[in-house]
């Protein structure tokens, strides 16, 4: 579920390039001048080789706080998915397919939190890691109820990502905007896939009011599909390694 080293470093290079281009555009009152010659009036403010100024084009404090809040949301989602996966991997509730799928969701959230942390470092922000609250729910009646909870988690993540996107657009921060857009797209794919699983379950089980025997059979078939390496629900790409 994690990025390959080549993909990860290529993505970070694109983000870093966006930071540099954002800093040296004319909207910030600066441009790159020819290097060379003796200019006694040259200051560090207009020095095109002021590397620290170029690299550490810092985010506003409120945006740093917003990114830290999103990181906490990603870690909280990771906790929740790990809890769900462990529940359906236990001896009393053996549903290996459901557990496997939830572990993939957990990996996704952990990966996204790390990307946000790396972005903070690139932009000269500071990471704050507050306590992560334990999941409020520790058991589920079925895989369906867990998937419905997962859908709620992803929607909560979406709200946070939309807030980051608005902030990036307001600041004309192209690297920040790209990061937020990429995360929003992947979140949309996650929501689509989880919603598809819920609809498939209800269809097989005869709807929300299906008989217990039908629901049990539907859940059994769903779990069998989720156990496969390439599941019937992998069309959105979530079951494959994340890439940019």
How would you summarize the topology of this molecule?
Blueprint: H1 5-24, H2 51-55, H3 61-87, H4 96-122, H5 143-171, H6 174-204, H7 212-227
Helix pairs in contact: 1-6, 3-4, 3-5, 4-6, 4-7, 5-6, 6-7
Low-confidence stretches: 24-40, 230-244
Class by alpha and beta content = mainly alpha
Q: How are helices and strands ordered from N to C? A: HHHHHHH
The Cα radius of gyration reads 22 Å
**Beta-strand content bin:** under 5%
What can be said about the biggest beta sheet? none
Shape: elongated
Average pLDDT reading: 77
Number of helices: 7
DSSP summary, beta strand count: 0
Q: Work out the helicity level.
A: 55-70%
Distance N to C terminus: 13 Å
Describe the structure using short key phrases:
single chain, 244 residues, disordered C terminus
What does it look like?
- By secondary structure, the chain is mainly alpha-helical.
- The chain has helices spanning 5-24, 51-55, 61-87, 96-122, 143-171, 174-204, 212-227.
- The two termini are 13 Å apart.
Brief rundown of the structure:
The protein has seven helices and no strands. The protein has 244 residues and is mainly alpha-helical.
């Amino acid at each position: 579920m994690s990025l390959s080293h080549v993909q990860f470093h290529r993505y970070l290079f694109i983000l870093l390039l966006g930071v540099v281009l954002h800093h040296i555009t004319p909207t910030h009152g600066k441009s790159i001048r020819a290097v060379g010659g003796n200019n006694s009036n040259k200051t560090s403010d207009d020095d095109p080789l002021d590397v620290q100024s170029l690299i550490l084009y810092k985010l506003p404090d409120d945006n740093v706080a917003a990114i830290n809040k999103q990181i906490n949301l990603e870690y909280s989602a990771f906790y929740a998915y790990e809890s769900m996966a462990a529940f359906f991997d236990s001896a009393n509730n053996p549903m290996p397919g459901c557990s496997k799928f939830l572990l993939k969701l957990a990996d996704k959230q952990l990966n996204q939190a790390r990307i946000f942390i790396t972005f903070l470092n690139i932009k000269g922000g500071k990471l704050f890691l507050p306590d992560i609250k334990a999941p409020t729910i520790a058991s589920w009646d079925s895989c369906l109820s867990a998937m419905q909870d997962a859908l709620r988690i992803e929607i909560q993540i979406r709200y946070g990502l939309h807030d980051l996107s608005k902030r990036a657009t307001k600041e004309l921060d192209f690297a920040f905007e790209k990061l937020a857009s990429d995360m929003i797209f992947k979140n949309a794919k996650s929501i689509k896939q989880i919603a598809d699983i819920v609809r498939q379950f209800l269809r097989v089980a005869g709807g929300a009011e299906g008989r217990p025997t039908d629901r049990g059979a539907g859940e059994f078939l769903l779990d069998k599909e989720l156990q496969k390496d390439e599941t019937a629900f992998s069309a959105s790409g979530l079951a494959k390694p994340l890439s940019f």
